[in-house]
Structure formats: C-alpha cells, structure tokens
Design a protein that fits this description.
about 190 residues; five-stranded parallel sheet; alpha/beta; 2 domains; Arc Repressor Mutant, subunit A; elongated; about 15% strand; about 50% helix
Length: about 190
C-alpha cells in the first residue's frame, strides 16, 4: 500500500486536457484524484474527511483561483493549496502565498516537481497522529456524534464548562480553526 493512498488531490482547472493529464499522473503516483472544471463545482461537491490538498489553477473564468482561496479561508477551510498558472505573475503569486498557499507552480509543471510539492504539502498538513488522552477522545467522539456540550457533559459525568475547555484544547491540539474543521479532523481520527 502506497504512502499516498488515502490522500486526495482536488484539481480545480477549467482546462479539461490539463485536468485529465494531471489526474492520470497523480493516480499513477498513488493519490486519489477528484477533479473539477470550476470553483463552483468544487465548492458544491460533497466533502471528504480524508487528508486532501487543493491543486488550483490561478486563471479561470468566473471565480478564479485567488477568489476560491479567499472563500475557503472565510469558511474555515484548512486544506493545503498549491497554485498553478501558465504565467509567472509575481503580484498574484505573492498574494496567494500570503493567503496561505503552500506552493506556486508554473505550467508546464515537471512531474517530479509536482509530486515533491504535493508530498511536502501533505507532510505539512499532517505532521502525524496527535496523542489524545482518554477524556479528549471521549469528548471528540461526542462532538463527532453531533452531541451538544451539555449532552457530552451528562454522559461523561463532567461539567459543561469542563467540556467547553476540553473542546478548546482539542481545537488547539488538532489545529482546527472552526467547529466544521474540528468535525472533519475528528472524523478522520475516528476512522483511523
């Protein structure tokens, strides 16, 4: 089993031949690939809790790559993003990196360069399992199950304040920026 199995690369590019070529390369390299012709198609797709990266074209009609990156940041997305473009556009490259992009690749992209960039992005995004104590594991299971703080507190025989504190600790430990992000990360831990 490849170290890349279970890692998803979401390709968002309006050029069908580019998406197809990238999908073939990345699938052969062991990644799971999901491709989208537009930012809207990506945003309306069903989320997947497995570790994922976004390989994003800068220039697209309608919502371009930078606008999609800003939208994802606004809604609490933490998926590592790699931009790609046919042009070396310094001002927009700087903007993308300042907004959290892991890499900016100029097309045509060398296979080895792309695979290395993706491996680095996944390594940064997933530094390894985070050790959780028994209480944190129990609270995380309750959160993933959709229970309210007071329900988790009653179930574990703890105060609601303790559950809130534990939830804040979990957000910090798991690097979650929102409840949705905590749920996504919690579901990934629960399925391991």
């Amino acid at each position: 089993m490849s170290a890349r199995s279970g890692q998803i690369v979401n390709i968002v590019d309006d050029d069908g031949s580019t998406r197809g070529a990238l999908a073939r390369l990345l699938t052969a390299a062991g990644f799971t690939v999901r491709s989208y012709a537009s930012a809207g198609a990506f945003l309306t797709a069903d989320p997947d809790p497995r570790p994922a990266c976004l390989l994003l074209d800068l220039e697209m009609p309608g919502v371009d790559g930078l606008a999609l990156q800003q939208t994802l940041r606004r809604i609490g997305g933490t998926m590592p993003t790699l931009f790609m473009s046919g042009y070396c556009d310094i001002p927009r490259t700087v903007t993308a990196i300042k907004n959290g992009a892991v890499e900016f690749l100029v097309k045509p992209i060398e296979s080895a360069e792309l695979l290395n960039a993706l491996d680095n992005a996944f390594a940064q995004a997933d530094p390894g399992p985070v050790p959780l104590n028994d209480r944190e594991q129990a609270v995380l299971r309750g959160i993933v199950a959709g229970r309210l703080n007071k329900e988790i507190a009653a179930e574990l025989g703890l105060s609601e304040r303790t559950i809130k504190s534990c939830r804040a600790d979990l957000m910090h430990k798991l690097g979650a920026r929102s409840l949705a992000d905590l749920l996504r990360r919690g579901m990934a831990i629960a399925t391991c």
